[in-house]
Amino acid sequence: MDKVTRIGVSLEPELLEAFDKYLVLRGYSTRSEAIRDLIKKAMVEESLKAVDSHAVGTITLVYDHNLGSVKENLMDIQHRNHEIISSSIHVHLDLNKCLEVLVIHGTVGKARRLSEELTGVKGLLHSEPVMIAGELSEHGKKHVH
Ligand code: NI
Question: How many other β-carbons are positioned within 10 Å of the β-carbon of residue 85?
Fold first, then answer.
């Protein structure tokens, strides 16, 4: 194992007993392993709560441009969210199918809402959001006006 720091955790006997039962139920071999997982889970939940934190990422869409009004609906949503869409790439895959990659730069909350709205468009064949939240985006943030 990589470098680790040992810490002491004080627990009431009842809580420790319940925790040990939890370990068995979840198949953990050590308390450390279970505590590590619980800490990680709590921190992921916390970071997802921060809707105002900054995010960069992409949303990849695949659709049939002849199908209903999918093209118009996607375009409409993109115009309404122009402030967080930095750029987009459109590739004509074949006679009917289009691939679009949107580059997103905004808050976690806005990026998530946009992704949900796009994913909800009827006739969309594929939608894949990739969001990176936190420190990684701080550098890029300085270059956006
Ligand atoms: Ni196209």
Answer: 19
Architecture of domain 54-141: 2-Layer Sandwich (3.30)
Closest Cα partner for 128 from 86, 107, 100? 100
| Residue ranges of domains in the chain | 13-49, 54-141
Output the CA 69–ligand 1 centroid distance in Å: 14
Q: How far is the CA of 101 from the centre of ligand 1 (A)?
A: 12
CATH code given to domain 13-49: 1.10.1220
Centroid of ligand 1 to alpha carbon of 37 (angstroms): 44
What are the tens digits of pLDDT across the range 49-108? 677 888 889 999 999 999 889 999 999 999 999 999 999 999 999 999 999 999 999 988
